[in-house]
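Key idea: predict the complex, not the pieces.
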Amino acid sequence: MSRVAVDTGLFVAITLVYLVLTVGLGYLGYRRTKEDDDYMVAGRKIHPVVLALSYGATFISTSAIVGFGGVAAQLGMGMIWLTVLNIGLGIFIAFVFFGKRTRRIGHNLRAVTFPDLMGKCYGSPFMRYAAGLVIVVGMPLYTAAILIGGAQFITSTLQIPYTTALIAFAVIVALYVVLGGLIAVMYTDALQGGIMLVGMAVLLVLTYVQLGGVVEAHTALAGMSDLVPEALAAGGMTGWASMPEFGSPIWLTLVTTLVLGVGIGVLAQPQLVVRFMTVKDSRALNRAVLVGGPFILMMTGVAFTVGALTNVYFYRTEGVIALAAATDGNVDTIIPNFINVSMPDLFVVIFMLTLLAAAMSTLSSLFHVMGTSLGFDVLRRTDSGRAAMRPIQIATIVMIVVSIVLAFVMPGSIIARATAMFMGLCASAFLPTYAHAMYSSSPSLRAAKMSLVTGTVAWFAWTAFVHVKESAALGLSNLLFGVPALLSAPWQDVDPLVVALPLSTAALLVGWALDRHEVTAEEPAGAV
Amino acid sequence: MFGIPDPAIWVGYLLALGLTLACIVYGLLNWNKGVDGEQGGS
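Result:
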């Protein structure tokens, strides 16, 4: 991924300080974990600033900065629409319209995980098992992608073997997740979020300084539209400071996969939803909104803007666009390459730490959610509804091992795609069901089951048989039907979420209407 | 605007900044609302 030549001695020294602080906070979390509720939902008394930074740092992984920043270098500033959704849906709507109800209902029902919340809202073990299974099956792919990104980065920065980097990275994070639970995860997230905030703020300022100011940088980028490569122009790209042609393949990829897929997907992410249950009242959520909005703007807004502007820098200094400056044509290398050649040494080190922090904060949250889903939601033997820490710790270790194994067999170029895929799956499977549970006084179990199953099956079917970027790689369509994708363009460019989410929403509405129809039909009979 | 000729892009930037501002204003206006037992803020 990154090919940053960095002062290794300085980086190692600063990284050691950072790791000591991380381990210290992990130990603090371990010491404060007395009850099962502490391990699962951080005792429901987390500080609002810690919540906001933890939510944001979990939300934003290395792939959001380097992977999606690289995509902005390739496709341009249209990625800013993902930032609009990240702040509008991912923070404001999530905290104000979902967070408060999730906290209150979760507290009243004593729910401790997202599947547990679903199971208790619908009074159905099926909902708990099914939601837990989607997480246990789907999340290791996303986790493995984060592991790959972190290991690639450590390997290229510290010049240590990939296998050693991957295992060491996983073990360090596993240590504080397994022992300290969600308190340790959120405390370390807050430190990592703070580092990310500093890193991205400095990156934005230095980039504009390098390019002669805000307006001059943007004007220069807009003037490069005639340099768009032929292949991208044929796909509908018009420049780096303008949107692609409406309805073109690149427009469809930008809008349906990147903007809608990731932007909407964040609303039903189990590792984010559980954070709403870690605070004691709605006041903490109100306060967290104030920190969360600016934090996300400084993460994705900066990554996408700087990503697009790297074209100006590389054109001025090397006479090529950013894509041509990428190592082996890999867009993930554009941001690190830009920082390496354009920024002062000290900032290169700060940015490396930013990427490490981004990877660790997301990874720790995924480890925790996978462990609690397997150990508590799927394999729970008793019906007491109480969490027992030891089986969950063992399940967490099992899921970490599964993720590490997957990371060794998955291709290295899958980071951004796996992120978008997991977010799309979560939205398709969970969003209508979650919204129904939060906003209906007597949520319909039949509607929830129909929605969850329809969303999951539709998402997998479209991924395996239609969306050519995945179906061609999976090979299932080719094996059964002899073609990489069953439908032609433009359908094969439409993201699975755009099809599966409306279907799962429709399934919920049909199930709900059937329930209401039956209740109405029974009422006169009951009155006789 | 800001050197960006395409309204579809600068409107996106304005919205991103406006929503960030909305988050800040919302947080300030509801800073002390929503303590257990109150309804405030939503």
